[in-house]
Amino acid sequence: MSWYCDVAPGHPVHQPYHDLEYGFPQTDDKVLFERLTLEIFQAGLSWEITLKKRAGLVAAFEGFDPAHVALYGEADIERLMADARIIRNRRKIGATIENAKRLVALVAAHESFAAWIKAHHPLTKPEWVKLFKKTFVFMGGEVVGEFLMSIGYLPGAHREDCPTFQKIAPLAPAWMDTP
Question: Would residue 19 count as lying in a domain?
Answer without folding.
Answer: no
